[in-house]
Backbone:
């Protein structure tokens, strides 16, 4: 059995453990401008008004506990390495529950040595590059997607890490009304293959760098039996994500991320459509075709430790889409995000903070833009109870 350990397991800890953990987090703030009311307590440029007067009136106070989180995790020693499990959820509604305070699964996975199965941050992500923000959403251009996956991490040392995963496929289509061009009501997505994601990280004396890639197969089929056009098609989505954390001085750190690709928008924190229609003039049976939309994004944040109990984050994020020629004039094209905060840690496991957030949305081709300014305060209280015991290595 020992010969299997290099393939299955990493170095083990000394004890089995089971922990209940989480935090209670209350946000209170004021939106000076307008945003989609389903996203009242976050800053998302894609959810800012697409035309004048949308989501009016401006000036709204909010208070929320949706960031509160509860979870359990365990570590059990086995002959094939550590068996780890984690399950946690917050109360931030998504999809049909957007705007609601309701259960939302964050992590739900098991890991045996180098193998992981379940829902956790995508292998395409780098969670360590995220700045500390009071805003739940954070920089709009960051790669952020909690996905179900099968992951293998063959290399994990103090200086290098490499992982590869098969992840749940998916994507979103542009919601432009194409009725004046072609009827796409009977076109449905199809995902016959998993997404393939991978990353490599190297630790330097001054910090680390990470490079990640993803490939996804996007396919759609026209289910209509009477359509005069052939609307089925496919495209390849791909993306590259480069991130780094640099230790500037004893009190400062710089966090940077840049991404580039096509059709991987659903992996971005503030996503726009992955696919849209474009003209295919000269083809009488397929006058339009689907296209994976090109996208690039970048953020740079500085984290400052003013004192042991007083810290700040300040930074800028930008995300730009290359729209297709058939998208609506008010389709999202560019989002910008600025944030600065001051956080006070009066005692262990407690945080009080105040944060200013700015967002801007630019439309595709109608010259309209919208801005948002928000002040947010946060009150966070952590809790944890951990039980340890000696392992039974006879398993």
Residues:
């Amino acid at each position: 059995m020992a010969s299997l350990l290099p393939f299955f397991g990493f170095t083990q800890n000394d004890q089995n453990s089971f922990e209940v953990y989480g935090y209670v987090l209350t946000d209170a703030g004021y939106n000076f401008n307008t945003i989609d009311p389903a996203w009242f307590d976050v800053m998302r440029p894609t959810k800012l008004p697409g035309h004048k007067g949308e989501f009016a009136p401006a000036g709204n106070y909010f208070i929320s506990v949706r960031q509160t989180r509860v979870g359990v995790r365990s570590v059990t020693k086995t002959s094939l390495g550590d068996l780890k499990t984690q399950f946690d959820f917050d109360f931030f509604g998504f999809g049909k529950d957007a705007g609601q305070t309701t259960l939302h699964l964050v992590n739900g996975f098991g890991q045996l040595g180098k193998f992981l199965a379940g829902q956790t941050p995508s292998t395409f992500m780098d969670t360590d590059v995220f700045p500390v923000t009071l805003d739940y959403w954070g920089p709009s251009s960051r790669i952020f997607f909690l996905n179900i996956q099968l992951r293998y991490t063959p290399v994990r040392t103090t200086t290098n890490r490499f992982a590869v995963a098969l992840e749940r496929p998916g994507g979103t289509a542009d919601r432009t009304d194409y009725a004046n061009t072609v009827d796409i009501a009977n076109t449905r997505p199809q995902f016959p293959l998993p997404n393939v994601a991978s990353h490599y990280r190297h630790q330097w004396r001054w910090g680390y760098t990470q490079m990640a890639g993803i490939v996804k197969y996007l396919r759609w089929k026209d289910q209509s039996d009477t359509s005069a056009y052939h609307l089925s098609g496919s495209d390849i989505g791909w993306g590259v994500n480069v991130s780094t954390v640099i230790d500037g001085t004893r009190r400062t750190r710089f966090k940077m991320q840049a991404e580039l690709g096509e059709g991987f928008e659903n992996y971005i924190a503030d996503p726009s459509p992955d696919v849209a229609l474009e003209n295919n003039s000269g083809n009488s049976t397929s006058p339009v075709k689907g296209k994976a939309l090109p996208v690039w994004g970048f953020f740079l944040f500085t984290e400052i430790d003013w004192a042991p109990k007083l810290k700040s984050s300040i930074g800028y994020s930008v995300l730009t889409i290359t729209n297709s020629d058939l998208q609506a004039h008010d389709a999202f094209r560019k989002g910008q995000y600025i944030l600065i905060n001051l956080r006070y840690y009066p005692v262990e496991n407690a945080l009080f903070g105040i944060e200013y957030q700015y967002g801007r949305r630019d439309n595709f081709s109608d010259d309209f833009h919208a801005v948002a300014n928000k002040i947010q305060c946060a009150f966070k209280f952590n809790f944890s109870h951990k039980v340890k015991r000696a392992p039974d290595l006879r398993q």
Residues 1-5 have pLDDT under 50 and may be disordered. The longest strand covers residues 369-389. The chain is about 0% helix and 55% strand. Helices lie at 5-8.
